[in-house]
Target: Zinc carboxypeptidase
Amino acid sequence: MKKFYALAVAAMLGFGPAAEAQQSQTALSYYLPAGTTYNSSIPTPHDILGYNVGEWHVSHDQLVMYMRQMDAASDRITLTEYARTHENRPLYLLTITSTQNQQNIDQIKQQHRQLTVPSESGKVDISKVPAVVWMGYSVHGNEPSGANAALLAVYHLAAAQGPEIEKLLNETVILVDPSINPDGLNRFASWVNTHRGKNLVTDPNSAEFDEVWPRGRTNHYWFDLNRDWLPLQHPESKGRLAKFHEWKPNVLTDHHEMGTNATFFFQPGIPSRNNPLTPENNFKLTQKIGTYHAKALDKIGSFYYTEESYDDFYYGKGSTYPDVNGAVGILFEQASSRGHAQESDNGVLTFPFTIRNQFTTTLSTLEAAQAMREELLTHQRDFYKNALNEAKKAKTKAYVFGSELDKARAFHLAEIIRQHQIDVYRPKESFTINNVTYTPENAYIVPTEQPQYRLIEAMFEKRTTFQDSLFYDISAWTFPLAFDLEHAALSSRNFKGNQLGAKVDSLTLPKGEVVGGKSDYAYAFEWHGYYAPRLLNQLMDHGIATKVATDKFATAGGEQFDYGTILIPVTGQPMDADRLHTLLQELAQQNALQVHAMNTGFNPSGIKLGSPMMQNLVQPKVMMLIGDGVNSYDAGEAWHLLDNRFDMRPTLVKTDDFNRMALNKYNVIVLSDGNYGSSISKDKLRSWVQQGGTVVGLGEAARWLSDNGIGNITFKQSEKDTVAQKPYAIMDNTNGAQVIGGAIFETKLDLTHPLAYGYTDAQMPIFRSNTLFMERSKSPYANPVMYTANPLMAGYISKPNLQQLKNTAAVDVSALGAGKVIVMPDNPNFRAFWYGTNKLFLNSIFFGQIISGGSARTEDAH
Model:
């Protein structure tokens, strides 16, 4: 009797024994709406792929093959490639609508863009404009039910016949993004298909459900692309956002998966965690659309929930970015089979069942968008009108940012802002505010009185008060702080429209140059520029000998050179003076840097060029540990920075291989955040450091180094809550409120320390997302970066954690034999858009070798 009851419950939930389910659940009739007829000339997925949807996991090349065939077969479809991944896989967007709409597609796009311009939106007759719905599938590659549901969605929209589908296609334009993360999807599909037997194994212990590190969730460099909608650091995101703003959709769906033992979630999320910049009507529309999902899922017997677990606070997610752009973002989370069929708390969860739920809510979204078409278009128009009215009333009239000594960093922030369809200008003339002078050459102004006002505020605000203390993602992402740029909010008292100079319509990286012509003596460039490390490494690749100035100096011509200036002697190099000059001209241009010709070593002030304080540099030979136990996000961010941005060649070594390999080829080892346990030999690493190596430990790796006696680092102990009893119902929220999900804090730099070379302001914002509080060293020289007494700049932190954080160390340097141990509890490379702290990490790699043992904490410094 019990077995019969369990099977009945499983059937009600949509689960069932895998062997029986496989045959019945992969037929098209299992997925497609009953009573619909289909055009037999349109190929089914089986016709092209040779198997039924859900029988195997579709690989990206197969998905592409099917979408190309559908483009050729149906006049309802137009296929567009919008980007290429890091692994050179194409990303496609399918525009699906009626043939009449296809003929007028440019006009429809223009009308949607016109709705976002308040001065023009009233001219659009929304009764005649189709709604635009963007369907985005599987941004996480190992959440594959979405991408596989895209096969069904495209087939249904191309082949379905009858007045119902014709009406839908006349009244909507459907944009299908079948695989947001091709590299991750392919990685995952290869794993699960390789480990699938002829007879499905549902035991959760099977290797099929335990893919190898780094797993398929992320892209090539192990980034979560669902966090990149605001930072725009990857080709997938840049191409997608350009299409988003080309179309200005009304609804965007984001199809995900969650734990195997869950059911199905659709938005809205927790109301108290909505971003305050999102209008209340967005939440109401999301709720109303949710009623269509509920009805559709009820019809097929699937369990679901809503207004729990997830939130809409961070605008860098695919389901939240639309909310600050006049659209409605919808997150779907389907319990994941993580393979073909797996036992769960609710019975055996099959892959076809997960696909059916995603496809079903694809159709319910389209039904809602069609029924609510004028309501959604009105919301889009009102969103921008109201935003512009809010901007007119706001105290802040513009934001200015820039950098006198690092135009590249300011350029990259302006580049991101422009991609979000925000107008950016140069100042018409120089002006000073808060003792900082902004010039037309080094600064940018973003006026707030423009339709994207809410998004501008989202990028520039420094919010520290919140309705809720729990966050699904980070609580702060203030861009000028992330870039560590001089910036200011301008009120009506210090900003007038006539201060705006040229509008920035196109951006190119500023060109560098060699100043002073050819030298037969030496050249020098300062370390302030963002790409200074790349220029140095390129010189090292050519075998050019270099030195670094550990003090300031000035030339007879009045040129001032700061700590960290790189010196390039002309004599003794592997190339003659002419070739060296030509090389420096090329590299200076590429890296937006000024290289100065030096004609004498006798400086009138500061150190002389032959001083022992000009220290020889050795090219970093970097090993990065990856693999089990290592945080793949943090490791990927470090790898991407070195490889993609600075043209360095770190050797990626799996933790499993560390103990059996020779280390003498490397002089820097990077331990990203992670739990290293006993996977690598502490004695071997310790011995290598003692012989002169530099180990850089980030996040939890800092604790591992401390626990294993590699460096003298101590951490504060968490303070225990002495309250004897609390209600069980509040346990999750109480504990969650002590999490630092991601906030921004102020630190103070020792600008004379090698790890701070290139910085000119002793105050620096740092991003933090953990509760590792590092004690200050007893050595007065070992902590070149310290948290201040009032560190919170933006984001959420509990009062107890804030007290713990005050006046703690953000960086620690220990001497160990002839080597150095450099640790940072925080991630200086967070999501690739924290340009401001990248130099801390790079300085550890390039200058760890020159830090004096006397300036670091020694082994007996407790």
Notes: The chain has four domains: 2-387, 395-503, 520-616, 622-716+734-855. The longest helix spans residues 280-300.
